[in-house]
């Protein structure tokens, strides 16, 4: 089994799923970008609920020891054998400089046979489906997301489901897409909203306000990934850099 080391800046932390091998543990997936501007899917990075949360955040630089996974044929996927947080977060402007050259469309990603990508959406509409306003603790919520991903949308429901209707900016062949958002950090925002609001209409309004304010202040990009079992596209994370001028070239963090 060939092992390799990579330094990866974290773009997306997927919502933890209950580990099939460790009954008391959870596993986390990461989408990261290396210094060559390559997107990689890293899994699993494990932790035990109740023994501290995951020891890294978005933009943190990880040194990971990886190999090819046994059952995941997606070429961007890597099985994580170990990881170390280098305690040297990459600045947003540096992340942005790595990410922007990757911006493409879902149509092009399909032609390339890719399972990860970045798109800049032209938002057409937002669908918010409130299935439950019951407050969940982190572990319960993680397990719900795991069921949703494993069983599919028809047989499992998240408390709040958010789908974007959008076109891929700059892609004439793109009519429109309707795709669910599974960003962990945003799901934490939804959990906090549900703690304060019990009426579905109020929850929807708060979420709409959140996105309205976000798009006024920041640029919005989707980090896209395909479902392991079904191959369908999901919005795995949001990349939201500040709206600013030119970015100075500086990749000293790598």
Automatic annotation (TrEMBL):
Top-rank taxon, per record: Archaea
Listed name of the protein: Uncharacterized protein
Organism listed in the record: Methanosarcina barkeri 3
Lineage of the organism: Archaea, Methanobacteriati, Methanobacteriota, Stenosarchaea group, Methanomicrobia
């Amino acid at each position: 089994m060939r092992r390799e080391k990579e330094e990866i800046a974290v773009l997306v932390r997927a919502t933890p799923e209950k580990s099939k091998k460790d009954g008391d543990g959870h596993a986390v997936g990461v989408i990261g970008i290396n210094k060559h501007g390559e997107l990689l899917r890293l899994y699993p990075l494990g932790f035990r609920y109740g023994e501290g949360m995951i020891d890294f955040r978005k933009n943190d630089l990880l040194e990971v020891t990886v190999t090819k996974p046994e059952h995941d044929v997606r070429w961007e996927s890597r099985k994580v054998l170990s990881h170390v947080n280098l305690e040297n977060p990459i600045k947003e402007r540096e992340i942005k400089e790595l990410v922007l050259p990757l911006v493409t469309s879902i149509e092009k990603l399909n032609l390339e046979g890719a399972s990860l990508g970045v798109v800049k959406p032209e938002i057409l509409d937002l669908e918010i489906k409130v299935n439950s306003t019951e407050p969940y603790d982190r572990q319960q919520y993680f397990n719900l997301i795991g069921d949703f991903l494993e069983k599919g949308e028809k047989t499992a429901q998240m408390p709040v489901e958010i789908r974007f209707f959008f076109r891929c900016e700059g892609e004439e062949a793109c009519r429109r897409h309707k795709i669910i958002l599974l960003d962990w950090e945003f799901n934490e925002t939804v959990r906090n909203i549900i703690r304060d609001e019990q009426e579905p209409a109020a929850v929807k309004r708060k979420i709409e306000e959140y996105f309205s304010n976000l798009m006024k202040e920041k640029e919005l990009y989707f980090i896209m990934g395909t479902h392991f079992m079904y191959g369908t596209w999901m919005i795995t994370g949001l990349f939201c850099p500040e709206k600013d001028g030119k970015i100075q070239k500086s990749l000293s963090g790598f």
